[in-house]
Design brief:
Among the domains are: 6-106 and 290-320, 2-Layer Sandwich (Nucleotidyltransferase, domain 5); 157-233, Nucleotidyltransferase, domain 5. The chain is built from ten helices and ten strands. The chain has helices at 44-62, 86-94, 106-114, 156-172, 180-189, 206-222, 226-245, 267-279, 292-302, 307-320, and strands at residues 6-12, 16-23, 28-35, 71-76, 101-105, 120-125, 129-134, 140-144, 255-260, 283-285. The protein has a five-stranded mixed sheet with strand order 3-2-1-4-5, with helices on both faces. Strands 8-7-6-9-10 form a five-stranded mixed sheet, sandwiched between helices.
């Protein structure tokens, strides 16, 4: 394998941008970090600046120029979700890397990292929630991920919002008994009057803040709060609906499933999710083999390498990780 091939992968997430440069021998040569590249929540000028900063740092660390890149892949938030934004996002990327570049949704990178050479599913449940899958023909499918107002079922935001609705019912008497969840939410928010928490539920950071309450729900459930447990059960049902819907898209059973996101750090949800998967013949759990930024590198390499060469490239990456 020729060592003078160089690939750039960029994970332009909603909270940070991470760029990497790999050689054709599968060696990571340089990395670069910058702020978010989310076009829905950052000014366009700032998105370009963050992308350029991350890429420049990775290239500088690798000791190469843009002109030496064999191919690049950028994973960008909302790309492919809202068609009218796609041309604009692609133009933003091409201001950084004008040619030999592929743009995909940022979750596509996680999917490729989890299942680089075959069919599979990645189920993400963090602040938001969605599933992305690909079949053996390389066709990609997305289920949910439509944002907190239209979807993200079973996400941290979903759990946090249900928790808020529940404790406010306890506050005004629609639920007659106040369970430990009520005081735990107040303690987390550091408020003496529950109504004060409403100040944190508006504005730019409200989505993240509401989603963070999911951790309180998990702790309350662990402490025996039945109301909190019921909220988690509801979220789990939604995640399983999303998971089972993919059987309409992928016919090769059993389907390997990788999971990611903070909600699966909740012991109650992960244990029951895993129990469900273990009992069904339709799915099996697969640990994500490579991180999303390496998924970007693999997608870039797929544009120029044969299947045999790609297999060797991937083997070298795994050996170096």
């Amino acid at each position: 394998m020729k060592s003078y091939d160089f690939f750039l992968g960029v994970d332009g997430g909603g909270t940070k941008t991470f760029a990497v440069v790999y050689s054709g021998t599968g060696e990571c040569l340089g990395t670069g970090r910058a702020d978010s590249a989310d076009v829905l929540n950052r000014p366009r000028k700032k998105v370009i600046e963050n992308l350029r900063d991350a890429v420049d740092r990775a290239l500088e660390a690798a000791g190469i120029t843009r002109e030496q890149l064999t191919f690049s892949c950028f994973g960008m938030p909302v790309f492919g979700d809202i068609p009218e934004f796609d041309p604009e996002i692609k133009q933003l990327v091409e201001k950084i890397i004008p040619e030999r570049v592929k743009v995909v949704n940022d979750v596509r990178l996680a999917l490729e990292g989890a299942h680089p050479l075959g069919a599979g599913v990645i189920l993400l449940a963090g602040t938001g929630a969605m599933l992305m899958a690909k079949n053996r023909q390389g066709e990609v499918f997305k289920i949910d991920g439509w944002g907190e107002h239209a979807g993200d079922m079973g996400s941290g935001y979903y759990i946090g919002k249900r928790a808020l609705q529940t404790v406010f019912k306890m506050y005004d008497g629609r639920i007659s008994k106040r369970t430990p969840l009520f005081e735990m939410i107040k303690e987390y928010a550091r408020v003496s009057d529950l109504r004060e928490i409403l100040l944190y539920c508006k504005g730019d950071n409200s989505r993240t803040y509401i989603a963070s309450l999911s951790k309180v729900v998990c702790e309350a459930s662990k402490a025996g709060d039945e109301v909190a447990t019921a909220i988690l059960d509801e979220a789990l049902r939604e995640l399983l609906i999303t998971l089972n819907t993919v059987k309409q898209k992928i016919r090769e059973i059993p389907i390997p499933v990788a999971v990611a996101g903070g909600i699966f750090n909740c012991e109650y949800i992960y244990k029951r999710f895993r129990d469900y998967v273990d009992k069904t013949e339709d799915f099996y759990i697969k640990t994500s083999t490579l991180p999303p930024h390496v998924g970007a590198i693999i997608l870039a390499a797929k544009e120029v390498y044969s299947e045999e060469r790609l297999f060797e490239f991937l083997r070298n990456i795994k050996a170096s990780e």
